[in-house]
Amino acid sequence: MAKIGVLIETEKDEIKKTNFGTITAARDGGKNEVVALLLGVDANLAQEALAAYGAQKIVQVSVDGADLLSSPDLQARALADVIHHFALEGLVGLASARGRDVFARLGALLNVTLASDCVGINFDEKTVRKSHFSGKTIATIKLSSSLLLCALRPNAIEAQEAPVDAQVESYAASAEDPGLVKILEVKKGGSQKMDLTEADVIITGGRPIDAAENYKMLEECAELLGAAVGASRAAVDAGFAPHSMQVGQTGKTVSPRLYIGCGLSGSVQHFAGMKTSKVIVGINTDKDAPIFQKCDYGIIADMFEVVPVLTEVLREHAGK
Amino acid sequence: MQIYVCVKHVPDTAATINISGDTGYKDTACKFIINPYDEYAVEEAVQRVEKAGSGEVIVVTVGPEAAVSTMRAAMAMGAHRGILVKVQSQFLDSTLTSLALKAAIEQDGDGAPDIIFTGKNAVDTEGFQTQYRLAAAMNLPVVSEVVHLEINNGQAVVEREVGGGTREVLEMKLPCIVGATKGLNEPRYPKFPDIMKAKKKEIKEFDFDQLGLDTAVDQTELLKLEAVPERSSAQIMQGSIREQVIELVRILREDDKVL
Hints:
The structure holds two protein chains of two kinds. Chain A has helices at about 20-25, 45-50, 70-85, 95-110, 215-225, 235, 270, 305-320, and strands at about 5, 10, 15, 35-40, 55-65, 90-95, 115-120, 125-130, 135-145, 150, 165-175, 180-185, 200-205, 230, 260, 280-285, 295-300. By secondary structure, chain A is α/β, with parallel strands linked by helices.
């Protein structure tokens, strides 16, 4: 049995639900002991949720006299100390923007091999599976360091409940900020309600959306789907949506349960960012659009006719 | 300003990857390009030097001899010269890559960069870490996935997106390393005379082994490369739009249980 740390990500003092899949991966079917790590957040708030997925120990990490959230290098150094103190044999976490950053800092700091954006881990062989070449191939990579560092693609591993009694403790890590990088401010996003990479369901509008205000149609539908709204590169480049909504190469990589693409041609670059979605639906007027060659279900029609009907049908279901 | 830009030579994102053997692919069968994120890095470096009215942009690449074409593409965008560290593998470990980049930069001129730009990641290995390892090796501050950069009095203030439209604003002192991504700028399309001019620009070449690096470091090893099977053609819904939508929702709820 290996002792594996899981770096838990929070948003506004709440546990992101994509963490649960990471805990499931770290448990490895119960073969590993899981230590959930929270940086600068009250661990008691998270106890119940983390225990439900199998975190045996929950550690609230702080550094005396310093704000952990003000420096990514300090976070990496605190984690290095935590790994040593709790004798962790591995650390896994989410390959979100912040996760990719802190894991890379930690790997560089400790001179330890790291794989980011993984879709699977084999603890026995110390290998991971991850995308190479924009999702066209999957690589199996051996991590040679004795400490296993791995950041997982959000939603890549399905969370499974595995309730345990979790023990909560605080730990004041001994770490010093090298003073190289300082976080000055966190600017909250505007209208977007849900982080794309966190979403279970995504509905995306391509270039034919034709105007920024037409995303309202998708937002209405998204509300009933419990979905986040995405955009294609063409729609972003045309100024209809901000870059933070872009899915695909040069945008976000997402892995939702259901991906509904409206007015998407289905380019290789777009698929690079969403092809690990469980179910993909395409809506396009062009029956020869490439998307219909590589998605699960298709509706050959104008999204402006289909989406309002979809919203209506979902509303009827919700009303039942 | 002395600005170094780390650029990788990668297969075109639209290219088909034909796997050969366990970990190889037919690199002669696909077109190679400058790593798309590195274009933002080159553009930013060139704009900074243009604005300052002086300085130099040096492209640094760790890759095969053929990577010269990618370096020329960066030079057509305005980079002044290049340094190529030649390796055979497309999959050189990120620690070794960072050590090679460091050695290439440090042996060059006075070896004192003001800024080093990279892309946020390479679209072939999708590692997201070489810039961090380079920063650790050179003891420089680093921020990646940068969408906005301002430099004033030796301080860089950068912004990065952290999801849901939220941005973090971070500050670091120069010299520093900036990992660029989309949003930072609009990379230019080189004009024909710039492409011609780029052909005459200097590229210094080294063999990786010539750098005398300590290669006894922990490394990742690629064990297997497998094609991801494409989904087969979609099941196309039939009937009126309402009928199609009702059937789709039924399938998603009852058969696939994703709704």
